[in-house]
Amino acid sequence: MSPDPLLLILLDACRYDYPDPGDSPFLWGAGEEGLYVQRLRPGYGFCEIAEMLTGVEARRSGLFCQMGYFEDAEISPALRLAVALAAPLEERGGPFLRECGRSLLRRVARRFDRREVYQIPARQLHRFGPTEAAREYREPLAFGIPSLLDLLREAGGRADTGAFVTRGRIDGPDEDRVRRLEELANGKEPLPDLTLAYLGNLDAAGHRYGPEAEGLRASLRATDRRLARSARAFLDRGANVLVVGDHGMMRVHARADPLRAFAEACRALSWKAGREAFAFVDSTLCRFWVREAGDLPALEAELEARLPRCWGASPPKGLVLPEPYPGAPEPEAGVPSPGFWLREEAAERLGAPRGDRRYGDLAWGARPGILFAPDYFNLGPVAGMHGYRSDLPEQQGLLLGLGPSFPVERRTSCSLVDVAPTAAGLLGLSFPGELDGRNLRGDRALLFEVVRG
Ligand SMILES: [Zn+2]
After folding, report:
1. Could you give the number of structural domains in the chain?
2. Domain match, 447 and 323 both
3. Residue that wins the pLDDT comparison between 196 and 94
4. Cα 372 to averaged position of ligand 1 atoms, centre (Å)
5. Which domain holds residue 180?
6. Which residue from 6, 29, 257, 420 has the least number of CB within 10 angstroms?
């Protein structure tokens, strides 16, 4: 007997405490119908899709940030030309010309380099490339280590990723993906063994409005209806459905500007930012590199003097925030620092990879609730963010398992890396190597074997 088909829905940024009888009746009720894990803990980092599909954490997979520095990175001649045209507009033009330049870069990069440029400055583009999103997820070994899609392909199974994201890019609204799922489920063909789906509206609304705002509740109501339609369509055809809220969302309390501190540090050293040293800023992590290794101590010293004071427009008066990582040293009296150095101890406690130059010669992380702005991904400041220490409840998602393989069961916690082995188990597959995650149904299946045996 072949296993039941599986629909795996990534419900981006569905925080553990979002289910609510009024705003999300499906999510709320589903917890009573199958497996409901109240809190799912992601790793520390930005590559949730890799974690979810490989079952391996960033510290071992090396997939940590969406974009990394590549010494031998190349851009196409077309993009090089676009950079030459766009860079002066970006550096010296007004908002309109700047947007013309960005639009050109965006189009050329998608067409010729099959990549996104986000808000990365034109002249820095050639240094940075995507890490987890470099390839189509269904291409063999797209993550560099086996994923659920690799296992399925090797077993001769069929996967549908048409309602998922590809190369870190989300095409079209959630509604389009839900329609595609309904078409699949209502068609005459047998269901694919594995269907991957992505609903991103909650993430977008959480960033835009913040996790406690009314705008988020509106998104929750719409997302819950779409989730219900998708899941029911597949459940009606005898499929299992896994719903993964991959991480949470934290309200942004204040902003900091590490790029400004970096520019000041370069000026103090009589360097040109982008030449002797360069930086990449994510919303909660800023990374720095030097061209000559011998320059590192000088940069570090200058940054050390400036980063702890790089508060943005919002004054930190009376602000009390969690420590940046478990067991962090007590802060000194006075105004706290908006961030922390991601060195040995912090990396170890948080689970970040170490000694990987893609992620910086130096890295500085945000304290929970602090947003680095401007950054290289967002056009303007946002009200909600994730990417902090993941032992905080606000950073955690949830997991639901519905369908024939899921008796009613409630658990308190699991990890994002448990999804891959659990999904593999449902499909009758198993990963060849050692994983960080475990099959959430493993103990149950074993028990069943013992009882039968
Ligand atoms: Zn997000």
Report:
1. 3
2. no
3. 196
4. 14
5. 6-64+132-251+392-452
6. 29
